[in-house]
Amino acid sequence: MPTPNPNGGMVPPPKTSARAWLALLGASLALFCTVGFLNAFGVFQKYYTTYLHGDHRSSSDISWIGSLSIFLLYAGSPFGGVLVDRIGPTIPLCVGSVGLLLALFMTSLCTQYWQLMLAQSLLLGVSASLVFCPPLGVVLRHMPHRRGLAMGLTIGGSSIGGIVWPITLQQLLNKDQVSFGWTIRIVAFIMMPLLAIACFTVVEPAKTPSPVSATTPEVQKAPDSLNGNVTDVSSEKEEKKQKSDGTKDFLKKPTYMLLCAGLALAYLGLFTPLFYISTYAIAHGQATPTAFYLLSAINASSFFGRVVPGHLADTVGHYNLLTIFTFVSGLVGFTWTKATSLAGLVVWGLAYGFSSGAVMSLQNACAGKIAPPQHQGLAVGCLMGCLSIAALIGTPISGQILDHSGYLALSMWTGATLMAGGAVIGLSRFMTSPKLTAVF
Question: With a threshold of 0.85, does the pTM exceed it?
Answer without folding.
Answer: no
